[in-house]
Amino acid sequence: GSTTITNGTLMLGVANAVAGAIIFNGNTATLDLGGYAISLNSITSSVAGYGVITNNGASNVILTIGSDNSSLSISANIQDGSKTIALTKSGTGILTLSGNNSFSGLTTVNGGTLKLGSTTGLSNNSEILFTGASAALDMNGFSETAGSIASTGGNGIITNSSTATNSVLSVSTDNTSTTFSGTLKDGTGTGFKTIGLTKVGTGTLTLSGANTYTGTTTVNAGILSVASVSSPITLNGGTLQYTGATTSTSNVITLAGTSTIDVSNSNSVLTLTSALGFTGSAGLIKEGAGTLVLGAANTYTGTTTVNTGALKLGVTGAIKSTNSIVVSGGTLDLNHLNLTIGSLSLSGDTNSSVISTGGSATITASSNYNVAMTNSAIA
Predict the structure, then answer these.
(1) How many Å apart are CA 329 and CA 332, to the nearest integer?
(2) Partner of 229 at 20 to 30 A CA spacing, among 153, 245, 263, 264?
(3) Alpha helices in 69-137 (DSSP H)
(4) What is the pLDDT of residue 241?
(5) In degrees to the nearest 10, what's the CA dihedral of 196, 113, 207, 220?
(6) Pairing between strand 85-89 and 113-116?
(7) Ramachandran angles phi, psi of 241, nearest 5°
(8) Beta bridge partners of 269
(9) HSE on the CB side for 43, CA within 13 Å?
(10) Residue 253 in contact with residue 261, Cβ under 8 Å?
(11) Cα–Cα distance, 290 to 295 (Å, whole number)
C-alpha cells in the first residue's frame, strides 16, 4: 500500500523500509532516507512542490526510481542532509523532475528518459552519468545547469522535446573534467525546438559523440574539446580545443571576450572559412601543436597571440590592419600574403617565428617597420 506523510519526518531504519507509493500531503512533509538505499516507483505530492527527500543518516545513499518501467513526475525537493543523496533513473519509463533539487550525489540514467518539469529540476551540484543505450535527458523547453555530464560506451541522448521553447544546458559547475560520448541533438520531428550548450567551470568537457544539435555553443570558462565544429560557437574567455583531423568549417566562432582556440594535433589543420565574430576589443589566442588558418577577412580588434603551433593567414585581411600580433612560442605563417598590422612582437622564446610558406611576403607595421619575408624565413 501507499505511505502518506502529512507533517514531520518519516525516517528509514533499514534499506527499502517502504515498498509502496510515497504521498507527500504537506509542504514540509519529509522522507529522510536515514543512510539507507531505497528503490521507489511512485512518489507524488498532493499539491505541487509538497515534500522533501533528504538523508541525515550515517552513510551516503542512492535513491533508485522507475525500476518497474513506469513513468512518474516528482515535484518534491530532493536535497542532501548530513550525507548525500544520489539518484538513479532505471527502467524504460519517463521520470519528470520539477522540484527544487540540490542533491550532490551522482545522477545516473540507466534507461528511459529523465525529463525536466521546471528550471530547478536538475541539481546544479550533481554530475549526470548516462549508462544505458536508451538513456536520455529531455530538456523539455527548460534551460538548466548540471554539475557535469558524462557517459559510458557512447550511451546517452540529450535533446529537447518542446515545440515552444529552445533549451540551453549549462554544464561543469563542479569544475571536473568529463567525457560525454553520447549525442546532443535537437528535438526530432516538425516543430521541435533546438538545444544549445554552455560550458562553465574550470574543467575540460570532451564531446566525442556524433552531435547534431544546432543551438549555440558557448564556452565561458575551462575547455570544450571537440573533434568537429558542428554548430556556431561563442567563446567568452574559455578555450575551444579541436582534436579532429584536417578540416574546414563555415560555422561562425564568435569572440565575446579574448579567448583561445587550441588545435591540439600537430598534423591537423583547422580552417575557419567564416570571419570571426567579436564583441568589443576581444582578441584571439592560438594554442596547440596544430595549425589554425584564418580563411576569411576579419575585423576583430583585440590582440592576436600565437603561443604554440601555427597561425596561418588564409586570405588577405585575415588579421585587421590596425591590430597587434604577439608571437610567443608559436609560428605566424604569412602564407605568401602581405600583411599590414599595427604592431608585431616576437618574444625571446626560441620557438617564436614568422615564416611565409609558398612564397615571399612583406609585413608593414604602422610604425613604418617593414620586414621582407622569404620562404620559411624566421624573423
Answers:
(1) 10
(2) 153
(3) none
(4) 98
(5) 40
(6) unpaired
(7) -105, 120
(8) 291
(9) 27
(10) yes
(11) 16
Return the SS3 of 149. strand
pLDDT tens-digit profile of 241-271?
999 999 999 999 999 999 999 999 999 999 9
Burial (CB count <10 Å: 0-12, 13-18, 19+), residue 67 = middle
Beta carbons within 10 angstroms of residue 179's beta carbon: 16
Q: Please, which pLDDT band fits residue 347 given cuts at 50, 70 and 90?
A: confident
Please give the single-letter amino acid code of residue 257.
G
> What is the DSSP secondary structure assignment for residue 322, as one 8-state letter?
T
Task: Spell out the residues 6+ positions from residue 330 whose beta carbon is closer than 8 angstroms to its own.
Answer: 286, 306, 307, 308, 309, 310, 311, 351, 352
Is residue 303 within 8 Å of 329, Cβ to Cβ? Answer: no
Q: How many other CB atoms sit within 10 Å of the CB of residue 220?
A: 19
In sequence order, what are the beta bridge partners of 157?
136, 183
Residue carrying C-alpha cell 602564407: 335
Q: How far apart are the first and last CA of the chain?
A: 82
Cβ-count burial of 348 within 10 angstroms (0-12 exposed, 13-18 middle, 19+ buried)?
Answer: exposed
In one-letter notation, the amino acid at residue 334 is L
What Rg value do the Cα atoms of the chain yield, rounded?
Answer: 26
Q: Is the pTM of this model over 0.90?
A: yes
Confidence category of residue 311, pLDDT binned at 50, 70, 90: very high
Confidence bin at 376 (pLDDT 50/70/90)? very low
Percentages helix, strand, coil for the chain, rounded to the nearest 5? 0, 40, 60
Residues with Cβ within 8 Å of 155's Cβ and at least 6 positions away in sequence, in order, are 130, 131, 132, 133, 135, 181, 182
Rounded distance between C-alpha atoms, residue 317 and residue 163, angstroms: 42
- Which phi and psi (to 5°) does residue 246 adopt? -60, 130
**Three cell numbers, residue 90:** 532505471
83 CB contacts (<8 Å, ≥6 apart)?
A: 35, 55, 56, 57, 58, 59, 60, 61
In percent, the amount of the chain with pLDDT more than 70 equals 97
